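Researcher: Sequence recovery benchmark, item below. Answer with residues only.
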């Protein structure tokens, strides 16, 4: 009897786990269970819309999704449509690949002030994620601050700095493109609590900031004087060397008549958000790094800003039935094993770090563990899931239906753009049900 495996989440971690299972010498059936109608997780909803080449990895996921043992069940919400305990009763093994979709909170006074937006929400908004399509962030501000010195902060700042023409070949949502274009923003501040040498930016992404048509990067050369930190491992040291060279290059660029600026503020730790109702300023403390730790100097300044976006990392969702580490924001696990027959891969296991390919090793390990732990099947598996969903009237989306959504999005694309995304689950279902009605026999 084939082993029934459910993978919850169809982002990179879920797909790499499925692919690794397919390569094993076991008779298995793999069901990908996804909360949204649409697959691919962060590739669709997180990767910046102007980084289309990164999204090409979807081609490999597509082959996995269409392999004979694999089925896609979109629009099935664990915790709403069925519980984890129920899923574990149905499947011989369950792999959690649910990512880290929640923003790590900014824990400083005033952090609840209106106008503060987490990167999960902001990125989801410009990418047309159904959870955030109606976020409507207020970008009517001359200064916008982005907290964080990672690639997500760079993505956000770059998108705020790009012109409509520069976004023409992207799949940014129309409403986000319009809001960014009509924003009066002149200065986008990227704030790092550490020095330039400790920034987490990857160099390729940092360099892009120097190549925008109407936005100039601004760096204070004094912030680069400390050079490459002594406390870095080899890989981080190489990254720091390249980043410092790039930032040095930025100090030599002439901002000319460019309308917008991206200002890099290093050693700037957020201390309080100021503003009665809506954010008016961010109080920042000057810091220094001692033995790799951020140490405050007591010297503060207020940066007036009308919008504040945090890009300070993510947390996984807690799911009843799986032990959760509140501090790390991940499931409690031993090398990926959460409980008998229950595994975790990707950001919900490791935390929100690494590139897309980092998830591959997680998938390989989970597949090996399943091979060791669960040699024979016996549970109802796919038939059990289908019966439960039918009994509860859950309208799930299969892969051919997703392909119909994809075709409609591609057909609606503006010239030069890859797609115009449907941004509500209602619109996706309406499209499918319309087609179903129009193809139904009279
Ligand atoms: P990240 O690289 O971990 O950066 C998070 C930043 O937030 C760090 O600078 C961190 O500072 C700062 N931070 C955390 N808590 C803070 C606080 N309370 N106050 C002030 N600053 C705080 O995370 P990310 O940018 O969210 O990216 C997540 C992962 O996705 C990364 O591995 C990233 O490389 C990857 N990614 C890649 C791409 C790409 O390749 N194009 C694009 C997007 C994301 P400390 O260093 O001091 O902790």
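Model:
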């Amino acid at each position: 009897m084939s082993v029934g495996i459910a993978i919850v989440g169809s982002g990179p971690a879920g797909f790499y786990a499925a692919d690794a299972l397919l390569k094993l010498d076991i008779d298995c059936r793999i069901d990908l269970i996804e909360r949204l109608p649409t697959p691919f997780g962060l590739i669709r909803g997180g990767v910046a819309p102007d980084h289309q080449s990164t999204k090409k990895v979807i081609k490999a996921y597509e082959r996995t999704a269409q392999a004979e043992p694999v089925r896609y069940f979109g629009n099935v919400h664990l915790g709403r449509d069925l519980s984890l305990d129920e899923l574990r009763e149905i499947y011989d093994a369950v792999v959690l690949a649910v990512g880290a979709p929640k923003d790590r909170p900014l824990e400083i006074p005033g952090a609840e002030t209106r106008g503060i937006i987490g990167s999960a929400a902001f990125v989801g908004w410009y990418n047309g994620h159904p959870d955030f399509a109606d976020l409507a962030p207020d970008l009517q501000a001359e200064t916008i601050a982005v907290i964080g010195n990672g690639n997500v902060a760079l993505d956000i700042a770059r998108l705020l700095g790009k012109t409509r023409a520069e976004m023409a070949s992207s799949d940014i949502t129309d409403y986000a493109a319009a809001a960014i274009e009509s924003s009066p923003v002149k200065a986008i501040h990227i704030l790092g609590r550490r020095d330039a040498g400790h920034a987490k930016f990857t160099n390729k992404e940092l360099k892009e900031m120097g190549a925008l048509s109407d936005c100039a990067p601004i760096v204070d050369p004094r912030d680069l004087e400390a050079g490459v930190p002594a406390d870095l491992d080899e890989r981080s040291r190489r990254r720091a060397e390249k980043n410092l060279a790039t930032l040095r290059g930025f100090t030599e660029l002439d901002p000319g008549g460019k309308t917008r600026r991206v200002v890099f503020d290093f050693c700037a730790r957020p201390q309080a958000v100021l503003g009665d109702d809506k954010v008016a300023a961010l109080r920042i403390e000057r810091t220094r790094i001692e033995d790799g730790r951020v140490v405050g100097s007591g010297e503060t300044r207020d940066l007036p800003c009308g919008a504040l976006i945090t890009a300070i990392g993510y947390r996984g969702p807690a799911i009843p039935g799986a032990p959760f580490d509140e501090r790390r924001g991940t499931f409690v696990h031993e090398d990926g094993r959460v409980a008998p027959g229950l595994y975790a891969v990707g950001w919900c296991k490791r935390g929100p770090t690494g590139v897309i390919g980092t998830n591959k090793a997680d998938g390989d390990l989970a597949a090996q563990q399943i091979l060791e732990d669960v040699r024979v099947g016996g549970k109802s598996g796919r038939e059990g899931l289908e019966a439960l969903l039918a009994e509860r009237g859950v309208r799930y989306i299969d892969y051919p239906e997703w392909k119909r959504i994809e075709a409609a999005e591609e057909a609606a694309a503006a010239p030069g753009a890859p797609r115009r995304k449907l941004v509500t689950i209602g619109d996706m279902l309406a499209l499918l049900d319309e087609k179903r009605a129009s193809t139904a026999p009279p």
